[in-house]
Amino acid sequence: MSRDTLAGGTTADRPDRPDRPDRPGLLDRPAPPRGPGRRRARAGLTVLAIVLSALSVFPVLWLITSAFKPRESVTDGRLVPESVTWENFRYVLTEVAFDRWLWNSFLTAAVITVGALFFHSMAAYALARLRFPGRDGIFVVIFSTLLITPPVILIPLFIVVRQLGMLDSYAALIIPPLFNAFGIFLLRQFYLGIPRELEEAAIADGAGYWRIYWSIILPLSRPILAALSVFFFLANWNAFAWPLVATSSEDLTVTQVGIASFTTQYGSNWNYILAAAVVAVIPMLMLFLFFQRQMVESIKTSGLK
User: Fold this and answer.
1) 133-134-136 Cα angle (round to 5)
2) Domains in the chain, number
3) Which pTM was predicted?
4) Which residue, among 218, 237, 258, 225, has the nearest Cα to 110 in the 3D structure?
5) Which of 170, 180, 73 is nearest to 123 (CA)?
6) Please, which residues have CB within 8 angstroms of residue 119's CB and are 6 or more apart in sequence?
7) Which keywords does this Swiss-Prot/TrEMBL entry list (predicted)?
8) What is the Cα–Cα distance from 48 to 125, expressed in whole angstroms?
9) Which of 216, 211, 231 is CA-nearest to residue 298?
10) Residue 134, phi-psi category: left (phi > 0), alpha (psi -120 to 50), beta (remainder)
11) CATH number of the domain encompassing residue 241
12) Burial readout 91-122 (b: 16 or more C-beta within 10 A, e: otherwise)
């Protein structure tokens, strides 16, 4: 009995075979026409997306345009300023220690991001690929910390840092934010999807756990590490509550705390505050544009998994 007979008939009796010139196959048949209801739904979703995008972009546009307005025109409610001035940016960049604030924010955010990616990836590798007693319990304890909001542990963390003698130092700004359950959880879920055959082949060649982590796991983790680096850097660049509590020296002031101090120093001079906010946003935009491709690749990889 032939294969075509077992499949339900001969080739001549199969209407979906492309070798019949008089009867097209399934792939050659035109797609059914879209009805008016489907077109209306697609148009409605498009309009909704445009409206939501406009609502998201408008505050940013207002921030940028208002930063170029004189003091008396900041609260006029107009998106396009009548007159443009660079005095706000000149004052922020020359009359206050804004460059020091930017350096403190960049230093702390960069060190925290690099250290967090290193320690989180090692912890996630151990929790996802190694077998040892209590592994699942440790992961549950780490994951449960995501349910605790940062303000709840702010005072206990302050007491611990004070007892360790790290208050008002870079150590107080860097060490506590290094540990975050979100990065460990996300990397662990990513590592669970890596085929074990890669590790087995490396072990057969004599590689140890550290060699496997450094030469196999980390190179495969580049997309997800790039996305996490943007998230970690952005979160620590915009950190406000903990730097405000942990430091009091002007030499350790970060950007967000410095901008907040404008309201006490300059009162209603919102033109300076808006100009400082625009300068603080520029590094974030550059970081996003630089890592945009890696972030898209990480989303694609997570979707395929």
Assistant:
1) 120
2) 1
3) 0.77
4) 237
5) 180
6) 178, 179
7) Cell membrane, Membrane, Transmembrane, Transmembrane helix, Transport
8) 41
9) 231
10) left
11) 1.10.3720.10
12) bbeeebebebbbebbbebbbbbbebbbeebbb
**Domain for residue 195, yes or no?**
yes
Compute the radius of gyration of the chain from its Cα atoms: 28
Q: Does residue 234 sit within a domain? A: yes
φ, ψ (nearest 5 deg) of residue 193 = -90, -5
Q: Which amino acid is at 188?
A: R
Question: Would residue 5 count as lying in a domain?
Answer: no
Residue type, 61: L
Residue the block writes with tokens 């540990």: 179
Domain containing residue 295: 91-304
Q: How far apart are CA 212 and CA 79, in angstroms?
A: 55
Does any domain span residue 26? Answer: no
Tokens of 166: 């790290």
In the numeric block, which tokens belong to residue 12?
A: 């001549």
Kindly give the confidence (pLDDT) of every residue in the chain, 305 residues in length, as a single tens digit, with 9 standing for 90 and above.
444 444 444 444 444 444 444 555 544 555 555 566 788 888 889 999 999 988 888 888 888 888 888 888 877 777 788 888 888 899 888 888 889 999 999 999 999 999 999 999 999 999 999 889 999 999 999 999 988 888 889 999 999 999 999 999 999 999 999 988 999 999 999 999 888 888 889 888 888 889 999 999 999 888 889 888 888 998 999 999 999 999 988 899 999 998 888 777 655 678 888 888 899 988 888 877 777 776 666 555 544 44
